[in-house]
Amino acid sequence: MSGLCQFSLEVVGQEAGHPVRLMFYNVENLFDIYDDTITEDDDFLPAGVMRWNFARYYHKINSLYKTITAAGEWEPPAVVAFCEVENRKVLEDLTGKTSLSNYGYDIIHEDSPDERGIDVCLIYRKNLVNVLGYRYLVPRGVDDFSSRSVLYSRLVIMSDTIHLFVNHWPSRRGGVLAGASLRHDISEMVSNAADSVNCRSRGLSKIIIAGDFNCLPDDDAVESVTRVRHHDVNKHGEGGFTNLSRKAYHNGEGTYRYRGIWEMLDQVIVSRQLIRCDEGLFADENSFRIFRPDFLLKPDPSYPGMTTFSTYRGYRYQGGFSDHLPVLLDLYLH
Hints:
alpha+beta, Deoxyribonuclease I, Chain A, seven-stranded mixed beta sheet, 20 strands, globular
């Protein structure tokens, strides 16, 4: 994959015995309060229908800091990938104007073609992660693409190379079929890109495909990502992918609650080399989990049980965190 932005950083080891933790979080409309004249952000302005202002914005930033810190347990995650982020400035406020500034996070962000101006991006701890390069991907042959691009980055963590794809596929708003064609286009693009990485290494690449897929693990668009295209990548038949979210999904867990039902929209798919390797970083079926502390939940006012404590419920401000729960992936060292 040519054209990667290139830069490098010093890498030091993670404390012995602790996993390297990666986090993905749909942060529900992390907008600043300023008007961007080329995107549709008018709802999230002080005079907009959401009455988005400094107090609500900084409460949101500090709520996300609290979530990231709690998810790290002993220390914040090495990598935190996001979707629904408006611009680089909000990431600078998150990493520079909260106590996350103590952990030396840097930022990967570019504006996407999304009409609302929400992007996928990530922050990473410079003392733990070496970013070899990154690029943003959009499907070829799609006229007037106006959704979120996919972030592909190559990371060196504990002397091991991780290929990370961060996704936010088109919404099902308007029904399950809404956006289905474009989700399939993006799925095919991600599949081909991951397959290309795998083929160059004869199936030995350690690949993570994470994000909000806006469909369930058994949807064909998601399942197509896990299929092996080059069955002869090596003599052992390596090169396939495993959806680590599937077990939790079949246990009735989810990251987003819709009409009283938990849906597994936020998922982590890994190459089988990351599971089967006997050297360097590895994952297993228990490496994935949904982060669901009590403070991210509240009683569902419409259905029995708990739901996410979101920033808004419709147009009503609640002062919560997000309408999605974050997901975590722990990588261990052989």
